[in-house]
Amino acid sequence: ARSSLLRDVQCMSQEAIKIYILQHPPVVYENKRGKDGTPLVCIANLFPLYLAQRCLSGSEKIRVTLVEAPLSKNTEPLALSLALSAETCHALSPKDLSPYIMSLWECLASSDPQALISLSENFNSKTSFCEALNINRRVV
Asked: CB neighbours of 64 closer than 8 A, spacing ≥ 6?
């Protein structure tokens, strides 16, 4: 899986993590054959699950997308198909990413600066935002 744009995803607030997971719920299927007692197996959108495990308390519940359990021989092809379709539909080229992200930051900064801080304290200024995302603020 590709890494996060942020240098430290844990700088995001719990509210921001929950918003992200709501938009990209882990895709799971019921583990009827599992011997380890795990009731669900995540097959796509692994990063939101990783964030939930690292950044939210163990008692927090998150929304998931439940799909029909694939035949064991079809599990890997299904997971790869889901990953490929997500990456090709949502990914931006590196040359387009920085201007797009900065445009979002600038629009939110002008309409509701407090919303930026509610996402992450690192988003309170253009300089700290660019540092958190490793963007050269002079280029965008």
From this structure: 25, 26, 27, 28, 40
